[in-house]
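Internal tracking record. Fields below are filled automatically when a chain is submitted to the structure queue. Please do not edit lines marked as system-generated. If the sequence contains nonstandard residues, flag them in the REMARKS field before resubmitting.
Queue: standard
Priority: normal
Entity type: single polypeptide chain
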Amino acid sequence: MVRRRMAQTRATRSNRSHGAAAPWQVYYSVIFAPESDHCFYCEAPIDRFAARSFEVDHKTSPKRGGTHTRENLCVACPACNGTKGLMTEAEWRQCMADMAATPEPPVYVRQVRGAKLTPDDVRAIRKLYATGLTLKQVGAQFNTSHTNVSNIVNRKSWTHID
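SYSTEM-GENERATED OUTPUT FOLLOWS
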């Protein structure tokens, strides 16, 4: 059974039209093309001889009707190819533009979830303590414990705030 399948495979390969290039020949022609010294999408320089510095990408995914021809293949850096996924080039560029236009949330929201104090409060706590108030007095003004004030003043918490 295995030998019969191998014989069928060999026969299929030998019956191919000699005008079409084998898939590996197409990939090599893309990799070693003069324009393949940079990423097709972000234009970052690529070292074609370094391991994992590039990937051969389909401009239109085969799952969406793309072919394995030289016109549909390009060299891309792993970051661009990883974010592109099954998108077409136009869809990927639009997605990147939308991401660039979306504002980042404030830093303190991401780093200190559920915090009752704001970064301005933390700065004020440090300034008040530097004037000579006790930890309990500063804590009473901001409705927080003296332990929390101590951690803020000694930079054991809220370390990302100057």
